[in-house]
Write a structure and sequence with these properties.
Chains A, B: Catalyzes two activities which are involved in the cyclic version of arginine biosynthesis: the synthesis of N-acetylglutamate from glutamate and acetyl-CoA as the acetyl donor, and of ornithine by transacetylation between N(2)-acetylornithine and glutamate. The structure is a homodimer of 397-residue chains. Chain A has 397 residues and is an alpha+beta fold. Chain A folds into two domains: 17-269, L-amino peptidase D-ALA esterase/amidase (4-Layer Sandwich), CATH 3.60.70; 277-393, ArgJ beta chain, C-terminal domain (Ubiquitin-like (UB roll)), CATH 3.10.20. Chain A has helices at 58-66, 90-108, 129-141, 147-156, 205-218, 249-269, 288-299, 302-309, 315-322, 386-393, and strands spanning 17-22, 34-39, 45-50, 77-84, 115-122, 165-170, 175-181, 194-199, 234-239, 277-285, 335-338, 341-345, 348-349, 362-368, 375-382. The first copy, chain A, is globular, with a radius of gyration of 22 Å.
């Protein structure tokens, strides 16, 4: 199973998927802002994972319903827009999201219950449905299976992203492609993360669902830049069996994981105002859940994140942060390693700790909570920089 | 009961308390860095609250022991230093903190078990005990009961504080004084918050403890600037009965609350890099604890805090943040008010929401989670500014 940046990337690389992108005028910038990904069959198996936020945008509700209604666990197309999240718009928001599915179904001649809708952008602004309506018609007329069609779709779903994000994974006679948008979970008001994965493998909805959930747990769900979770987060996988190959669950798991990991890396690297990519691993506590709680507590600590921005091996902030975590620990036996060098042993500074070099873009942090327990987990986060404040304090960014 | 900024302030205003401050050379700046507050009796009743962090600095352990050992719930003096937190220094840290208590007891001719030790500053650096030892001798020789002695002590315990913090509350024939240091909980690596309250009222340790805990719950514990809790946080109250007046529990509660509230206001106003003071109230959920969880979740959300810095009435970020809180809510019936103006009703934008003026230094946020439940709580937080990042990314600030 191979993946490479030099190979053609994106949702149209697997057989039997077409895509289109157009400028509907939703983004003030005038950049492309709508995309369509169509599964041409022969099969239409699908699975998805959604935001855990209780405040859920209308398009998410429409997509959740599409996977249950009509042909359960089937999708024939996903329509995307950027620039407006259609979140917190009340009954009108639901009406508009359903209309987007209806227009798309009509344009493609398929059932409305097989259409996913994904929106990303500002919360609390009504969708400009006149522009969207015309946009969907144009999308349907511009569909194509070239790599450039997929690339156009990946660009059209960008918001504060600085680069489009695509991936490809090649199995034995079958392929997984994908696109994503998002800037490291840092902008939930921009309805942060959308991912669409396509494959020409033959795979049941249950197999897709299992592979996708496992992959998300160790990729997108570990990307915890500021603890925020958007109202619109959606990850969709569509499989059409066009390759005639039915991979084993293990092979499918591996390919979906590789695609998600590649996109998650790109999301983290493009997080708003990021100068450092920080991986935090916690061990030596009672359970994996406790380790995850401690890793997240540290990953969300602004003082720690500012220290990372300053390339400052300030391990005291690590102890102060994890000391508040809901995890078993021995307060007198905590160890901290920066880039594999011990900076704190038995909760006390190690020789040379202040001289550890954190000037590189990648920083590895390991915290052993010292109980001897088997619990372990990791999260990936970023530093807290001037640019983060700048980007996120501009009026309704 | 009166309090006023124009009255003399500080720990020496109540009868029977003396204080001193000196420069021991712990702070690189050469500013005063040690202080001593002595209770001259006749009574020595005391109570204290401490950090909830599991990683607890050595001086905190010494003070906790002092309140249990020898004469339980009595303190005759508290010795302070700034510039070094004596946290995460292992066995040597405990030896040094005990030595500070011993030196102070010897210099004052009192029992070591009646000495509180409070340190604030960098974590993980050994205390320069030669400087501290000489400093304690000088402190004991410089004690005085003038208002200037208390003011000197308040200045000596500052770290990144830009102004000293003192308070006074006058009852009928008795007085409460106090000093504090801290910058709105924003710098746990600087061992954020120390408060010392003195009173010449006659009050039992139990009465003091009850008054102090109630006061802290609605003052210092609501100051939740970035969710951080220091290794050294300590709030001490000492009562000597020198006034001969024994206030009722209600009167004591009220006076201690006023003193704590005044100091908490000063801490919040002096938080690092602050341009906005934000009060968040949450109601309409299942319990006060749930309301507090939601208020804290919002108060810690960096995107919301960046919006406050930008005076941006971005209520979508409020919904996205509280949607992740561990609190009962009706996701379709959340209301948000900025400065008493509705910006979101039934989880949908209110007319004129984007035009609400947040340009002032104080912003009031009210969130109704829409369940009709009785739970309510508030926290006080700040914005997230360029200066916050600047101050906290400098090397081992």
């Amino acid at each position: 199973m191979t993946t490479s940046e030099t190979l053609p990337q994106g949702v149209t690389v697997p057989q039997g998927f077409s895509a289109a992108s157009i400028t509907a005028g939703i983004k003030p910038s005038g950049n492309p802002d709508m995309a369509l990904v169509v599964n041409q069959g022969p099969r239409f198996d699908a699975a998805a994972v959604f935001t855990r936020n209780r405040v859920v945008a209308a398009p998410v509700k429409v997509t959740q319903a599409a996977l249950k209604d009509g042909n359960p666990n089937e999708l024939k197309a996903a329509v995307f827009n950027a620039g407006n999240a259609n979140a917190c718009n009340g009954a009108q928001g639901m009406t508009d999201a359903k209309k987007m599915a209806e227009d798309t179904a009509l344009a493609l001649g398929v059932d409305v219950s097989d259409i996913a809708v994904c929106s990303t952008g500002l919360i609390g602004e009504l969708m400009p449905m006149d522009k969207v309506h015309g946009g969907i018609d144009k999308l349907a007329k511009n569909l194509g299976t070239e790599q450039s069609h997929g690339a156009g779709a990946a660009a059209a779903i960008m918001t504060t992203d600085t680069v489009p994000k695509q991936t490809v994974v090649h199995g034995q006679g079958w392929t997984v492609g994908g696109m994503g948008k998002g800037v490291g979970m840092m902008a939930p008001s921009l309805a942060t993360m959308l991912v669409c994965i396509t494959t020409d493998a033959q795979a049941s909805p249950a197999a897709l669902d299992a592979a996708l959930r496992k992959a998300c747990d160790v990729t997108f769900n570990t990307l915890d830049v500021d603890g925020s979770t958007s109202t619109n987060d959606t990850v969709i996988v569509m499989a059409n069996g066009a390759s005639g190959v039915e991979p084993s669950q293990e092979e499918l798991d591996e390919a979906i994981l590789k695609a998600c990991a590649d996109l998650a890396d790109q999301l983290q690297a493009d997080a708003e105002g990021v100068t450092k990519r920080v991986k935090i691993t916690v061990k030596g506590t009672g359970s994996d859940a406790q380790a995850l709680n401690a890793a997240r507590t540290l990953g969300r600590d602004n003082l720690f994140k500012c220290a990372m921005f300053g390339s400052d091996p300030n391990w005291g902030r690590v102890l102060a942060a994890v000391g508040m975590a809901d995890a078993e620990m021995d307060p007198d036996n905590i160890s901290v390693f920066f880039n594999n060098q011990p900076v704190c042993v038995e909760s006390t500074g190690a020789p040379g700790a202040r001289e550890v070099d954190l000037s590189g873009a990648d920083i590895d942090v390991l915290v052993d909570l010292g109980t001897g327990g088997e619990g372990t987990a990791f999260v990936r986060t970023t530093d807290l920089s001037h640019d983060y404040v700048e980007i996120n304090s501009a009026y309704s960014s």
